[in-house]
TrEMBL record:
It comes from Clathrus columnatus. SUPFAM superfamilies: Cytochrome P450. Keywords: Heme, Iron, Metal-binding, Monooxygenase, Oxidoreductase, Signal. PANTHER family: P450, PUTATIVE (EUROFUNG)-RELATED, P450, PUTATIVE (EUROFUNG)-RELATED-RELATED. This is Cytochrome P450.
Length: 311
């Protein structure tokens, strides 16, 4: 019994070492360490910027390992299309991210009432939304959390040394609930107040799709709308041209609808450019390879987490 724990640890380390030694013909990437792989090199913030820099040295397919977990970063539209689209039958599974999923209460749900006038500086709800998105980005980044690689760590007591991830998850969960309830409470208190601005495009869209719009879609809509406001503030000439097109087509009689999009080509171009310029998820959503695959001259092992670098 005395030697059971050291033997178990030795067996785990040995298996990870053997896995790293068996690697064959993998895509290029930064050289890692035995057992821990590229863990020390993984960026903690703005990962997409680091991956873009690495692509200058290693190309559009970058291979990493973290404690035996293989990760493939795709830095070009060509590679992402050929793998995630043309081979979707084996690249469409999702990795289990314990920190982002189980401990962080799953997807972030934002029930915001549109028609709320934001403050010019330091708006409370916008700051909350930014904090939630930053927290989710950190929680869902592969390699950031040991509990994603060793799921049973989620069951250790909160006071255990090294269990700071549980405290962090609790903080993010509280923030998550504040984002859900805060805007709703504000809207309920201000239903008859002049603070509520009507009509507005977002409220119109949500009312038309109230039965089919998922909470995740609401979150994406909020982020895309904030990006649009930022882009238009930076480029008022583009905003004026888009407004002129809307006024010409609709003559100021109503708000735009999805059916009007074919008649608003410049507005559609603005929408597409905003999503390209500031994507909701710069690293996309992680995929999981369900079987070993050969791509170009590389062999990609089963279980690899595949991350498209949209940015």
């Amino acid at each position: 019994m005395t030697y059971s724990l050291p033997v178990a640890i030795f067996a785990i380390l040995l298996s990870l070492l053997l896995i790293s030694k068996r690697a064959k013909n993998r895509p290029p990437g930064p050289k890692g360490w035995p057992v821990i792989g590229n863990l020390p090199q993984m960026p903690k913030m703005h990962e997409w910027l680091t991956f873009s820099e690495w692509s200058k040295d290693y190309g559009d397919c970058i291979y990493l390992t973290i404690l035996g977990q293989p990760i493939l970063v795709l830095n070009s539209l060509k590679a992402a299309t050929e793998l995630l689209d043309q081979r979707s039958s084996i690249y469409s599974s999702r990795p289990r991210l314990v920190m982002a999923g189980d401990l962080y209460s799953g997807s972030v749900i934002l029930k915001v009432t549109y028609g709320y006038q934001t403050a010019a500086r330091g708006d409370h709800f916008l700051l909350l939304a930014e904090k939630v998105m930053a927290a989710f980005s950190e929680a869902s980044q592969p390699g950031n959390w040991l509990v994603d690689l060793i799921p049973w760590l989620r069951y250790i007591p909160d006071w255990t040394p090294g269990a700071t991830f549980k405290k962090k998850a609790a903080e993010w969960s509280k923030l998550h609930m504040e984002v859900i309830e805060g805007p709703y409470i504000w809207a309920k208190k201000n239903q008859d107040s002049s603070k509520l601005i009507t009509p507005n495009v977002t409220t119109t869209v949500l009312s038309q799709q109230i039965d089919s719009l998922l909470p995740e879609d609401e979150n994406i809509l909020l982020w895309a709308t904030a990006s649009l406001f930022g882009a238009m503030a930076l480029h008022p000439d583009v905003q004026r041209k888009g407004q002129q097109e809307v006024d010409t087509v609709l003559r100021g009689q109503r708000l735009p609808k999805i059916a009007d999009l074919p008649s608003l080509p410049f507005v559609e171009t603005i929408m597409r450019e905003v999503l390209r310029w500031n994507p909701v998820t710069p690293l996309g959503v992680p995929h999981l390879l369900t079987q070993e695959d050969n791509y170009r001259t590389y062999t990609i092992p089963k279980g690899t987490i595949v991350m498209p670098n949209i940015w």
